[in-house]
Amino acid sequence: xxxxxxxxxxxxxxxxxxxxxxxxxxxxxxxxxxxxxxxxxxxxxxxxxxxxxxxxxxxxxxxxxxxxxxxxxxxxxxxxxxxxx
Length: 85
Description:
Largest sheet: none
Strand content: under 5%
Number of helices: 4
Distance between the termini: 36 Å
């Protein structure tokens, strides 16, 4: 159920980034790689902190009452973005 919610949110965000964000910022991305992989991957990493289930990975997310997992996911996402060469 949570995977379906993540997919719906991520798909909508990717669609908006490929249409509205690209037009607003005017960058050239003919394959929409940034809109799908950059935005979708970032959102997916952060939403993992929202929908994480303790029975699967030992750490619960925001829906199970653990707000700190979003912070960990956000830090990991920022580190990943900053470590790009």
